Structures are given as structure tokens and as C-alpha cells.
Amino acid sequence: MAPPAETQMEPAAPDVEIRKRRGISPVWLIPVVAGAIALWLGYKTITEKGPTITIAFETAEGLEAEKTKLKIKDIDVGLVQEIRIKEDLSGVVVTAELDKGTESFLTDQTRFWVVRPRADISGISGLGTLVSGSYIEIDPSIKGEPARSFTGLEVPPLVRTDRPGNRYVLVADKLGSFSRGSPIYYRGFKAGQVLGYELTEDEQGVFVHIFIDEAYTGLVKTSSRFWNVSGVQVEAGSEGMRIKMESLAALIEGGIAFDTPRTLETADLAEAGTGFSLYASLEASEEASYVRRYRYILYFDGSVRGLSIGAPVEIRGVKVGKVIDLKMEFDRPNLRFRIPVLIEIEPDRVVVIGEQVPLPQVAETSAMSDDIRARAVMRGLVARGLRGQLESGSLITGQLFVSLDFHPDTEAQFVDTEGRYGEIPTIPSTIEALTASVTGVLDKIARLQLEELVADMRETVQTAQGLVASPELKQSVANLNESLVSLRSTLDNVDQQVGPLVSSLRETSDTANRTLKQARVTLASTNSLIGEGSQIRYDLSEMLRELAEAARSIRVLADYLEQNPEAFVRGKGGPD
Q: What predicted TM-score, i.e. pTM, was given to this entire model?
């Protein structure tokens, strides 16, 4: 019988020898490699990540987080990450992440604005965003200090940072009809733009910021002049009416023009940022070159209707100044009105040639100021006959101007020699002198006894009519006719009475002459009373002409018969 199983002998367990392995297990390589990869990916992500910036705008119109892009010259360089409202509710703050490499042009001079559809006087822009959506445009700048926080522009800048050219500042008394974006002209060519404007620090003027393209910066000199050419300029003055317009663009959006006057002095090139005065017109800019200005006063007694402030002062048609003020004064002691007119003369408009000639009543010294010397010279000119007079510059507008010229035959009448300004005597205008002459003639006519004169004229006409119809004149005509009849009868009997006929012819001729003289006297008296062209005068003139011809013929015939009595027998032809 077999022994029970539990009593059977079990084989002995083999001896196991446990040995400890030295070094790192290869299993740990997996997390190490994974960690290295994570670190490398993190490093790469951090190092390749661009800068994060914030931009403040007044509104978030057209902007969306995770959608709106940032562009430079139409290249995507970033994306808007977040948009939040400012704590003071004054606008929004846009947080954007830019691509790596954009750090170099993120300075305090870099500008940002939202590109969206816009329409202004310069044109329409941003139409492409109707399809692609709005985006933020960046105008990069490498100048200035690095920055990460910016204030965005509400309107796009007119000139980008990379556009070559210079900026200048104009100073004006007031803002003209131009606006942001208005063109700058140089002799009709567009040379730049108006960037913007603002009040001066004392709020008494306007700063106008302009940009001139690089092609025209060499034309901007220190002596250059800028003036307003906006719209249409209509001027009505003593020279008549003038209408000026620079161009159609200047008419619509305004504009500024500039030029550099040609002088003997060489002007330096104006640096960027140089300030210039902005004048209201080209004429105003030209007058600015005349620095010396002296004021004088003229007193007029007559009407100055048509004379306005700014009217020219001329010497023989050449402008030498302008009127700067006029008003009405009442002379209480003399109970009359007078009108003082203050003028400003620019002596540099007159070119002085030849050597200086001493003027009467002028004693110049080296210590005299320019103003005192000018007044002394003016006194000398007045002593030589310089007078002021109002003249009409235009019959259409009725504008007057002050004319200065020499009238040595007129007496200088001063009103206020101790006044603040030097006085120039005046004389009546041509119209006033003509009016005074006509008034004098009318006064003389008014003093005539017209009723008695008319009565005398009527009496004279009646006398003339009576003389024409008088029997004496009719008898004279009848006697003349009888003489002619007698003459004809004598000629019929001339063959038988040669000797007595000659005597009779002479007597008849004398009678005709006496009759003719009497008729001439009568006709002369009639002619003085009856106007030329009267029918009676005409008839008498014809009758006298015929009588004169008859008397002349009778005298010739009598003389011929006295010298040639044989003519009664042989005829006028003489012997055969």
C-alpha cells in the first residue's frame, strides 16, 4: 500500500540568487525624452511668439476678437486677441498679438488706424473692406523710443512715415476755406497737402501743418511766401471787379499756393519744421515785403462815398500805399463836418535815383529816426505842392481812391498841424470842382432878370416883323424895279442917244448903288433881328445878289460904251 501523498517527500526548491543592477533603467528614458520635447516646444513657442500690444480707439466699429487682422502694406502681421471697454468708458482697448520680427518698428511714432469705407473731399477709400472686412493698418516707424501701448487714429493719416518730403508750419490769423487734405500748389503744380490745423497757444491765430513732397522741397526757401487760394476770390475795388480762381480742385476743396520771389539776395533752403506766415491773398503776400510804412492824415470836406478801408493811394497811377481808416468829425467852432482819412505809405515802392537834393523846410540830422525823417521829407514835398485828392477808380463800382500829385499853384490848407500824424493838404476832387463850377453858372443864371429879357426879345422880334412888312422896304423894291425898266428902255434907244445914254446909265448906276446900299443896310438890320434860315432873309439875299449882278453888268457896259462909242453902230465885235 502506497504511503499517503502528504507524507511523500517534496523536491527541494532551487536556490535563487538576486543581483542588483547598476545604472539607470532604460524605462526612464521615455519621460526624459518627453520632457525634453516639451521644453523644446515651449522654448520654441516662446521664442517665436511676437510682441503683444494694446491700442486705444474711441470705438470698436468693424473690429472683432480673433478675426480682425493687423496689416502692414497689405501683409498680415498680427491678430486682435481681445477687445475691452476702458474703465472710464471713454473708448475701447484692443489687445493684439503681432508676429515675431515686428518689434523693431514698434516705437512711440508708430501709428495705427482702422481701415473701413470712408468718403471725404479727398475721395472714397476702403471699398475693399466691404468684402474682406475691416482691419487695422500699421504705419511703422523706426524712429523714437520702443513702445507697446498706443493710441489709434480715428482717420487715416494723409502722409505715411516712409513718404519722402518735409513738413512745415504756417501761421495765419484765421482758418481759410481749406481743410485737411487740401492741396499745396507751386505755380499750378500740386506740391503737397494740408495735414491739419490747430489754434495757437494764445488762441489768437491758427497753426496749419503742411507736407511738401521731396520733389518740391528744394523750392521752399526761407523767403518763400504762402497764400490762400481757396474757392473763387471776387474783389471789387477802385481798379474794377476781379475774379480769380487757382484751379477747379482749389474751388472744391480749397488750397494754398507758395512761391519764392526773385531778389538780388540769395535765400537759404528752408529746413523741415520751418514756420511761415500764411497770407490771405497773393497781393497781401507781396505787400508784406514792404517793411517800412509811414502814416499820414488827410482831411476832406466833401463826400467820400465810395472810399473804403483798403483803397489804394496812388501817385500818377502807381500804388504807393492804402487807406487804413476813415471817420467823421464835427468841427464845433466852425459848425461844419470834416472827414479825416488815415493813409499808410510804403516808400520802398518808389525807387530813388540820383543824388539827394535838399528839400525846403527840411533840416535833416544823423540823429533823426526814420519816422521823423520821413515826416520831414513829406513836409518838403508838401512845400513843393504835394496835395491829396479823391478820384474815381471805376465808373461801374463807384469806388474812390486817394491820388497824390503836385499842384504848386494851390495853397496848402492845414487842419491840424500838431496832430499825431503828419498832414497832407487836400484839394477838391474833379467832380467837386465841376459841381462848384456848374453851381456858379446856375447862380448867375438865377440872378438874371429872365422876364425882362424875354420881354425885350419879344419886342425885338415884333420890330423885325414890322420892318419886314414896312412900306419903306416895299417902296425900295418898287424903285429898283422901275430902275430896271428904265434901263431896258434906255438900251432900246441907245443907237440914237449915245452921249445922254452914258450919263443916264451912270445916274441909273448910282441910283442902283444907293438903292443897293439902303437895301443892304435894311437887310443887315433885318438879319440881326431874324434868325438865320428865315424865308424872308433868303428871298432878300437872292434879290440882293441879282441886283448886285445887274449893277455890275450896267457899270461894265457903261465903261465899255464910254471907251468905244462906235459900238452902238458896229457892235461889240469892233471893226472888220
A: 0.50
Q: Around Cβ 506, how many Cβ atoms within 10 Å?
A: 15
Is pLDDT of 68 > 80?
yes
**Which cell numbers in the block locate residue 328?**
467823421
> Could you list the residue range(s) of the whole structural domain that residue 210 is in?
165-287
pLDDT digits (tens, 9 = 90+) for 352-370: 776 665 555 555 555 456 6
Buried/exposed 10-39: b ≥16 CB within 10 Å, e otherwise: eeeeeeeeeeeeeeeeeeeeeeeeeeeeee
Whether 11 is in a domain gets the answer no
Specify whether 261 is located in the same domain as 300.
no
Handedness of CA 327, 332, 338, 342 (dihedral sign): negative
| DSSP category for residue 416 | -
Mean pLDDT, the chain, whole residue set: 77
Q: Quick one: pLDDT at residue 258?
A: 92
Residue 51: name the closest of 161, 151, 147 by CA: 147
Question: Are 199 and 280 within one domain?
Answer: yes
Domain boundary among 287, 305, 330: 287
- 267 and 212 both lie in a single domain: yes
Same domain, 310 and 427: yes
Helix, strand, coil percentages, rounded to 5, for the chain: 35, 25, 40
* 3-state secondary structure at position 472: helix
pLDDT score of 186:
92
- pLDDT tens per residue, range 15-58: 656 666 565 666 677 777 788 887 777 766 666 678 899 999 99
Q: Are residues 298 and 433 in the same domain?
A: yes
Residue count of the chain:
576
Say if 81 falls within a structural domain: yes
Phi, psi torsion values for 390, nearest 5 degrees? -90, 130
Distance of alpha carbon 144 from alpha carbon 166, whole angstroms: 18
Domain count, the chain: 4
Whether residue 562 sits in one domain with residue 463: yes
Q: Is residue 447 part of a domain?
A: no
